[in-house]
Amino acid sequence: MQQIRANGKILLSGEYGVLDGAQSLALPTQLGQIFRFEKINEPEIQWKSLFADNSLWFEVIFKLENNQLFEQITPATSETTRLKEILEYIFIRKPNLAQTGGYKITSQLEFDKDWGLGSSSTLIYALSKWAGVNAYELLENTFGGSGYDLACADASTAILYKKTNQPYIPSVQPIHFAPDFKEQLFFVYLNEKKNSREAIAHYQQLKKSQRTHLIEVQNRITQNLLTAQTLTDFEAVLEKSESVLSRVLGIKTVKEERFKDYPYSIKSLGGWGGDFVLATTRKAKDMDYFIGQGYTNYFSFEDFIK
């Protein structure tokens, strides 16, 4: 049996612009997803996905014939259709995988499925590593996206990520990111999962000149986040990032929308409108504000980030 583990991800800077080559600061999370691959004699793929508590959330069996998958027993769903698409692409690229027998594949999340930490990216990463195909190629031909989340899946530290002109070969630079004020940084779940494909479609409707300008600004923001010496400096960069994207996207910032009376900085992470935000604090009791608003799932930097 082969076991592959992939980290979840947080995009701290460069949201949206990362699609067009903005240099982005991304953080692998301590929580991820584990995949187990076992060869079996039957010509089929027996797939099972588990929640963190070991309960079943998804199961399907595909008959395997001439590198094609035929669903057996369970009716087609959006999950089975997408999984079938990914596996068939792999078997076309790596036909030897399906020459004899099949596979029993089990995945297990370490985080809540609705948290937006990368259930899809960890899937793509693990399947590409198992099959021996380029993960960025597999992503481009299935889900699409920038690929920063795939880089996080295998990272042991924060990374600077940038798409390049070389197909399926991004620039991934491991960096040390543990600011002196990290004890005052918290990640808060907004009780709402954002559909990243919808967010990306919205961004791609912008004029090319707007996107080019955004990339230039985000490159500076990423560097300024890395060089901020104090929490106050760091907050100024966060707020600059929020105001720029708010203006470009024509969307209120998350602080304006939900947390107007919070005294410190709040930054959206990834697609605006859901998943996690980064909140700065001065004392631990500041998190009572979010609890009082009904946002009870939150993590310290130390407990959340690798």
UniProtKB/TrEMBL annotation:
One of its GO terms (molecular function) is kinase activity. Keywords: Kinase, Transferase. The keyword Membrane does not apply. The keyword Cell wall biogenesis/degradation does not apply. SUPFAM superfamilies: Ribosomal protein S5 domain 2-like. InterPro entries: GHMP_GYDIA-like, Ribosomal_Su5_D2-typ_SF, Ribsml_uS5_D2-typ_fold_subgr. It comes from the Bacteria. This is GYDIA family GHMP kinase. It comes from Mesonia sediminis.
